[in-house]
Design a protein that fits this description.
Blueprint (H helix, E strand, L loop, with lengths): L1 H16 L1 H29 L4 E7 L4 H12 L3 E4 L1 E2 L2 E2 L2 H10 L4 E5 L3 H16 L19 E4 L5 H35 L30 H15 L2 H14 L1 H7 L5 H32 L11 H25 L3 H18 L11 H7 L3 H15 L7 H25 L2
Parallel strand pairs: 1-2, 1-5
Antiparallel strand pairs: 3-4, 5-6
Helix pairs in contact: 1-10, 2-7, 2-10, 3-6, 5-6, 7-10, 7-14, 8-11, 8-12, 10-11, 11-14, 11-15, 14-15
Length: 424
């Protein structure tokens, strides 16, 4: 036990002496969390489909324009704007506002849309139910009803299709009402019987159920992504100072002196893992506090883990174990400081890039998503997502913890094998 605490003291002193490495492990992730959250905040908000700001230029005073506005307002996803900075929207003003990102979508309802729609439908009714004296207009002479849409370029294709579908449904409802009125008017002329009934459009509905039997993963906000993402990145970046420290000890003969002492090889190894795992927890708590208290002061969403602090700390501890074992393995495999720093930094950056740290996985193509599943940084990030977005407890994170545990044991085994080879 004395030997264990002696090694703990040694690791703490070595860590505190490496002020540059410590500042790098703490200052770098804090800067990245703040900077990347600021940069991504507006972009990610546009990708979240909770509500879209729509600029509507309604130049039609009839049923088409009024029904489209009424229908869009009923949909919770759309927030309708007909003014911009106190001025009524024109086509040019709406296009300018959408281009600046003030609105995500613009809609132009051209003048006389209702008149032209009635004219087209009435002409079709006269074709099918001709009466004496009715005049049928050739299709080539009928006007077009063209509802125009223009989007902020950042809006994804799925959102564009959703809005197209919504407008198509609204237009279909409007056409149904006009067709019904046209047929009843024509039949009234033929039969001489009046019909004052209305088409029961309200009897047809489309409902949405939120009960999926499972908690589906929502799109994270910039805060919900960047705080855990750069926490994971910072924890795994300990590979560089950790590997460098191992190589320095090997070159100075410290490991050889430990070997000829009565201290078992496992004691300094366990002590090192414990200290760097604790360092990971301190890093995570620091960034948690940054996300919870500093980011809201800068106008961004506060980082909230729904009171699951125990789950957060336990998951962080397993991430720290995995990162520490990886750093020890790199330090035992590498022959020089240069090899350790180059391989360590490149491997972490690559694992971060494919693991969804730099770019969230929901923005990646399907081909990269399959590769992302092999990155331990992705497992770690998904674990944090489960806590932040789904309020999962540690009991529900068994699969992720198992992966991190296996990664820890694999790297620890590699570290022990190479460590014994290089010190024999």
């Amino acid at each position: 036990m004395i030997a264990f605490f002696g090694n703990i003291k040694k690791e703490v002193l070595l860590l505190l002496r490496d002020k540059a490495g410590l500042s790098f492990l703490f200052i770098m992730p804090i800067v990245l969390v703040v900077l990347m959250t600021l940069l991504q905040d507006k972009t990610i908000k546009k990708l979240q489909v909770e509500q879209l700001d729509i600029a509507v230029v309604n130049l039609d005073n009839g049923i088409v324009g009024k029904s489209i506005l009424k229908g869009l307002k009923k949909m919770k996803i759309f927030h309708i704007h007909q003014q911009y900075h106190g001025d009524s929207l024109t086509l040019a003003l709406a296009q300018k506002a959408v281009a600046k990102g003030n609105f995500q979508v613009g809609i132009l309802i051209p003048p006389k849309s209702s008149i032209y729609t009635r004219r087209i439908i009435s002409n079709e009714v006269r074709k099918q139910l001709p009466t004496i004296g009715t005049q049928i207009i050739p299709d080539s002479l009928l006007p077009m009803v063209d509802i125009q849409l223009f989007f902020d370029p950042i809006i994804k294709g799925s959102l564009r299709k959703a809005l197209h579908s919504s407008l198509e449904q609204l237009m279909a409802n409007i056409r149904t009402i006009i067709v019904f009125k046209s047929y009843t008017t024509t039949l009234q002329k033929i039969t001489g019987k009046s019909n004052i009934g209305k088409f029961p459009l309200d009897r047809f509905s489309l409902s949405e159920s939120e009960d999926l039997g499972d908690k589906s993963l929502k799109i994270p906000s910039s805060t919900q992504h960047n705080v855990p993402a750069w926490t994971v990145f910072a924890i795994f970046f300990m590979v560089i100072p950790l590997a460098t420290q191992i190589i320095t000890e090997r070159e100075e003969g410290s490991l050889m002196r430990l070997k000829i002492s009565p201290t078992p090889y496992s004691i300094p190894l366990i002590a090192r893992i414990c200290i760097y795992s604790l360092l990971a927890v301190i890093q995570a708590i620091t960034l948690l506090l940054i996300g919870k208290y500093l980011l809201p002061l800068m106008g961004m969403q506060a980082f909230d883990i729904h009171g699951n602090y125990i789950s957060f700390l336990i998951l962080t501890l397993f991430i720290g174990l995995a990162a520490a074992a990886f750093g020890i393995a790199v330090g035992n495999i590498a022959k020089t400081h240069h090899q350790a720093s180059v391989f360590g930094s490149i491997s972490v950056v690559l694992l971060a890039a494919i693991g969804g740290i730099w770019v969230p996985t929901y923005m990646m193509p399907d081909s990269l998503l399959k590769i992302a599943q092999w990155s331990p940084l992705n497992w770690s990030l998904q674990g944090y997502y489960d806590i932040v977005l789904k309020a999962d407890t540690i009991n529900q994170l068994g699969g992720i913890i198992l992966k991190l545990g296996l990664f820890f044991m694999l790297n620890l085994g590699i570290a022990v094998i190479y460590g014994k080879r290089k010190n024999t």
